[in-house]
Amino acid sequence: MHDAIPHWWSNLQVTAYAVPGHTEGSAVYLTNSVLFVGDSLQNKSNQQITGPSVIFSTDRTEGEVSLKHLGQELEPHAAEVRFISVAGSDVVPFTTMP
Fold this sequence. Notes:
- This protein is α+β, with helices and mostly antiparallel strands.
- It has a single domain, classed as 4-Layer Sandwich (Metallo-beta-lactamase, Chain A).
- Helix content is 15%, strand content 34%.
- It has one helix at residues 60-74; strands at 5-9, 12-18, 27-31, 34-38, 42-43, 49-50, 83-86, 91-93.
- The strands form two sheets. It has a six-stranded mixed β-sheet. It has a two-stranded antiparallel sheet with strand order 5-6.
- Strand 5 (42-43) and strand 6 (49-50) form a beta hairpin.
- 24% of the residues are buried.
């Protein structure tokens, strides 16, 4: 997968970013100002975004590296990301990646 290449389905634009570490082939998706991350990232109770859970990941270290890379990839597009949706958590306002 190539990062940050937008794909169009009718009038819906979806941009995918690779985030290996949670599972092989993990990706997050940006569409309509929401970054959908599933279990690739965690939203702690203090609203801090961290890498994938140690229990449910194939390579936690790679997940942390992916998180930093994702932050770099999203930096130029920060104004486009308004919310983040993490599995098992509410959709929360997006401020910045660690």
